[in-house]
Every structure is written in structure tokens, then in C-alpha cells.
Amino acid sequence: MSVPCVAVDRERGEAVRTRLAQADVLDGDHRIEVVGDVIYLPVTDAEAVPQALRDRVVERDPDARDRPRTPAEILGYEPSLERLGDIVILDEDDPDRAREIADAVMTSDIPCETVVNRASPIEGELRIREWDVLAGNGTETTHREYGHEFRLDVASVYFSPRLATDRHRVISRVEADETVIDMFAGVGPYAIPMASRGADVIACDLNEVAIEYLIENAARNGVADRVTAIAGDVRDLPTEYADTADRLVMNLPHSADEFLDVAVALAGDSCVIHYYDIQHEDDPFGPGIAAIREAAGDAYAVAVEAERVVRSYAPHEHNVRLDVRLTSR
């Protein structure tokens, strides 16, 4: 099977392997090959390879690596698992089955410190849920995503590792010296990588614990000087930041439409809005486009630059993203 690999001189192999691992693109399912003076490092996604190494990507057919002992091998069936740092997340209604899976996870070769099971839906303005800790003794972890680290507590903040690829696509569009406002910033999975690209980022969240983690994560990733963290209601931002944003992130899919008047107030003369929504599959983008046009009124021309289905959310419902440019008339 053809697999993208980064080809480098053997003497650079370990340094490049470390860099790819930090970017979370190293493919652990295939063996690293050495041919003469060249080492071939398999990667999971050629587009996610750091820019400086993109011209080194080639297609190879490496041998599959022997897989470690997995929970499925122990259980005899494939459980549904989600990884977040060193926490494994389950979503099981049957407590006995959840306990069985947790025991298998801890017995397996999966690097894991804690296993938790979802005990409630996401609730309230702060978008957090309750958890049953089935193994281990803590809900705090460090998650690594495309070369950045995020410290967080799953019991106190909202974070979805499932959105990593889509976040990366949005972040890759940011240019140095932009002013970005992340309206619902959480612990910083958009704000911090955008600051790493040279943007000045205002990051706001109603959850004070999330903002504390965001401040820690900005320092951890070396961008504290380019991130302004604000704990509070995003509706208050236009008082200081009206007409300033070159780019807005609106990742609040259930109710982002309620904040479009705030987004328009924050938008500069030319501003891209990354607007997340949840809609029926029959018309996943129409309601969001209509809401943005209504909020923009006569003040801005509205141009849809991209429409993307991020993931299936529920039967016949999609989590979608609209990239829309507002241009001052």
C-alpha cells in the first residue's frame, strides 16, 4: 500500500523524526525504511507535514509495523475509544461494559493514565459534561496537536480532539500580522497555533478555568506575547475591539447565530469569519449563509469562500463550517 513518507539524509533522521512526532503526523503503523544514505519516515497526512519538509514527501510502500496488544484483542470486539492526551474516553451506556473496556485499555499497550466514561451530555453555557473516572485518578492531561501542546481538564473545560484536522485547515490560512478574534476560545486550540503563525490573537471565553489554561498554554507554546486572553462575555468585546478583526473564529455550532451581531461589530474592513453550525443534511449551509447576510445588512458585502462538512453530528445532521468574507461597502 502506498504511504506518504518524508525522505531525508540518514544523519538528519532522528531530528526530523522528532519534528514529525511533535507535529503529530508520524505514522506508527508502518516501519521506517533506510535505503543507502536516505531514511524514509512514514507520515499519516502529507498535508500536515511541516512546510519546510513538504518538498521531501514521497510515496513508498513500507512494511506494516507489528501492532501492539490492543483492547480489541483482549476483549474480542472493537470498542469505541477516543484519545485525549493520556486519557482514553468512552461513551458507554452500560456501566459493566464500560468497566470491562476500561480494564482492557489499562491492560493493553495503549499509553494511558486515565479512562473516563461520559456521564452526561455537554451542558450549560460553559459546554462541559460530567465524567465517570473508571481507571486512574485524574481528568487533567496534556494533548498534543500539530506541534502544539494544550494542558486541560476535561471535567472543567470543553475540548474536542475530533476537530483537530478541521482546526488545522483553518489555522493554515492565517497570515502573519493579522488581527484574529477567537470568540469562544476554550483552552486555545485555534488561538495559540494562529499566534504561532504570527497573528495577534484576542481570545475570549466565558469559562474562567478555560482562560486560565489558555494563558498557561500560550506560555507553554511560546506565544504569550501575541495572545490576549479575556475571561468574560464576548458581547462585551466590541467596546474595545470594534472594527478591528481581520479574521473571526466562531466555533459555537449550536448557537453561533446568536452572536453574529457581535461578529459584525468586531469585523474590520475585510474580515473572514469561520462560522460553525449544525444543520440538517438537506440544507447544511443555507441557514448559516442567510443568518450571516442578515447580520451584515448593508454594511458589508458577503462572499462565501468555502463550505465544508466537518463531521456527522447526529442522524441526518452535520457539523459544518462556513468561511465567509465580509467586505465593508
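The above is record 1. Record 2 follows with the same two-line structure.
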Amino acid sequence: MTPHPFRPGRLITGVTGLAVAVAYLGDAAGAWYTPWYAGLPLLFLGLFLAAVAGVAGYLVRRHRRRAPSSASAENDGAPASTSGSQATR
């Protein structure tokens, strides 16, 4: 069992943030030129993709929860005990 569920939207958000940071760090180091406005489209596209992945991940998790389990397949509606030993007051 994993310590926490996989969240694809959060992964894409983190990768997007790293990509924007690398683009501006490369410009600051003099490796290449990055215009000041280049990060905005990259950031908005990454956040949009993260939202789509987050919704898709949510729908997959919801679908798995609604799947019938094998434990309830043999439920015939009978009470747990029919011997009448339950104390009533």
C-alpha cells in the first residue's frame, strides 16, 4: 500500500513549475535568452493540463470506489443473529 494516493495533477503542476524555473535560470546564467513573457503561456498551459489530469484522476478514483466488492456479493438481507439473544430494555 502506498503512503498516499497518486495525484497526476500535482505531478504536472510541479513539472510545470520546474520548467518555468529552468527557463529563467538558464536566462539568468547566460546559457540562453528567455523573454520575460515566455513563462506565462508555459505556466497557463501546464496548469490547464494539470487540471485536466486532476479531473481524470478523480473520475478514475471515483469509478474504482463505486465498483461492487466481492464481500457484499453474498448478502441475502438476513440479520447478523436470529437467535434472539440481543438484550432489549
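The chain has a mean pLDDT of 83.
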